[in-house]
Amino acid sequence: MDTKVTLSFNEDVINQAKKYAADNNISLSRLIEFLLLKVTTKSYQSLEDFPISEWVNQVSEGEAVYHTKRNRKASKNEFFESKK
Question: Which sign, positive or negative, has the C-alpha torsion 5, 70, 16, 50?
């Protein structure tokens, strides 16, 4: 059974992801579902453990920056500050 969810992404990232999905004959919803399934069915302890594939470079905007050794509170505060 499908369940609807609302997410917010950078518009450029969404446009690139839509193009990627169309080029691969898959809906954006199924692409995201596939990726979430891959992430949640493995035993990744952190995002640093997650293998980054070629497709990430195709749908990402610019160079990815990873912050490590940050506590949860700092990450949460940064997220909410970016939404202001």
Answer: negative
Report the alpha-carbon distance of residue 70 to residue 17 in Å, rounded: 28
Q: Where along the chain do its domains lie?
A: 1-61
Sign for the CA dihedral angle at 20, 22, 23, 29 comes to positive
Residue 41 phi, psi (nearest 5) = -95, -5
pLDDT in tens, 65-84: 555 666 777 777 777 787 77
Structure tokens at 75: 């990450």
